[in-house]
Design goal:
The protein is mostly beta strands. The chain has helices spanning 8-16, 249-258; strands spanning 19-21, 27-29, 42-43, 55-63, 66-74, 86-87, 96-97, 105-110, 116-122, 128-134, 139-146, 149-150, 156-157, 163-169, 180-186, 192-197, 206-210, 213-216, 224-227, 233-235, 262-270, 273-281, 286-299, 303-313, 319-322, 325-331, 334-339, 342-349, 352-361.
């Protein structure tokens, strides 16, 4: 278990309302501040004969000259916390609220050495689209749609923004790709110039190590190679930090740390719910905090893996709640994030987040069959 980072005790109070009074006989309170009171336990020693140990409550306090870790069995009553739901009609038209609809899910890959990006837009659950983003002009261009699922956390964009590597699944287990596959395409399209059949959803995907080299997350389970782009070089091992398992975190956490995020804490807040905390400095005062959550109960609209965010003032430790942001990062000096199917940009001032701009509303998009403008060898068609 790792704890650290400025204002970390403030972070712990926010996700589950945890507080701890220090002393020879510590007392604790567990509440969920996001909803009306769900569960409250008080006492110097929990009586496990009366409390169902559904999960672990882990609390760490970090301050000058003092550190403490408490591990209690506590009763946690889960309560679904759905995101605000809005949908709309027409590309770029203001959305019409719909309490029963789930907004488009948005994840973005940013090119490290170019002013481009790829938006991965999912919704409904088995329809996904890739969209090119020119970050200087904030213009967007639809790439292609897929009837299936792209695992965005196991995907990456080459530093120059020219190529996309992704892991996908459509469940056609008797097809050439065996129902799931890793592919390399010309961004923002999906037509594969490199293709490896998988046949299951363990590992998969990969990362670019340079403009012309990549790593495939194969794990111990072999791929069946269908085609390989001979102008790109595959490396055997990724020079990353740590082993984060055989699912999404095994690629995603390597990508986050490569792109300037620091893993500052890992904690389990329930038997089936964990939070891994990443931070990236915005300026001398503010930090963007990413709460990478793993919840095996697959809450509607989130899936098993989802992120929440906070803006943290390092001078005061105060955190601004941005939990509805499902993706966020820095684009140069501006902050960019997605919320309820829309992409926004804004700048952080001394007082916090300033004026924001809606860049694009992806909710109204609907599936359409589109063809990539190149062949499987990567050559653009006339």
């Amino acid at each position: 278990m790792v704890f650290g980072g400025a204002g970390f005790s403030e972070f712990l109070r926010r996700p589950l309302g945890l507080t701890l009074a220090t002393g020879s006989s510590p007392r604790f309170t567990l509440t969920d501040t996001r909803q009306p009171l769900i569960s409250s336990l008080r006492g110097s020693t929990p009586d496990t004969s009366r409390v169902s140990p559904v999960g672990f409550c882990l609390l760490g306090l970090a301050s000058s000259g003092f550190s403490l870790v408490v591990d209690y069995h506590v009763s946690i009553i889960e309560c679904p916390l759905p995101r605000p739901n809005v949908m709309g009609r027409g590309w770029g038209v203001s959305p019409v609220p719909d309490e029963t609809a789930i907004p488009a899910r948005i994840h973005v890959l940013l090119a490290r050495n170019a002013s481009t990006g790829v938006v991965i837009r999912r919704g409904p659950s088995k329809r996904v689209c890739t969209i090119g983003w020119h970050r200087r002009t904030d213009e967007f261009k639809v790439g292609q749609w897929l009837k299936g699922r792209i695992y965005e956390r196991r995907s990456d964009l080459s530093p120059d923004g020219k190529y996309l590597i992704y892991f996908a699944m459509n469940g056609a287990w008797k097809s050439e790709t065996q129902g799931s596959w890793t592919a390399i395409s010309r961004a923002p399209y999906l037509k594969a110039v490199g293709l490896w059949a998988k046949g299951d959803c363990w590992h998969g995907g990969g990362l670019f190590t340079a403009d012309d080299s990549y790593w495939i997350n194969s794990g111990p389970y072999p791929y069946r190679e269908i085609r390989t782009p001979d102008w790109l070089c595959r490396v055997g091992d990724y020079p990353g930090q740590g082993d984060y398992g055989s699912e999404c975190r095994g690629v995603y956490y390597l990508r986050l740390q490569r792109d300037g995020w620091t893993l500052v804490a890992q904690c389990r807040v329930a038997k089936r719910d964990t939070i891994d905390v990443f931070e990236k400095p915005i300026d001398a005062t503010w930090t963007l905090r990413k709460l990478a959550r793993v919840n095996a109960d697959d809450r509607a609209g989130n899936g098993g893996y989802f992120d929440e965010h906070e803006l943290v003032n390092r001078n005061t430790g105060a955190a601004t709640d941005c939990r509805s942001w499902e993706w966020a990062d820095l684009d140069g000096t501006r902050l960019v994030w997605s919320d309820v199917g829309k992409l926004y940009a804004g700048r952080v001032t001394e007082d916090g987040l300033g004026q924001t701009t809606l860049l694009c509303d992806f909710n109204p998009m609907e599936f359409e069959p589109l063809t990539a403008p190149y062949d499987v060898d990567g050559y653009m068609r006339e």
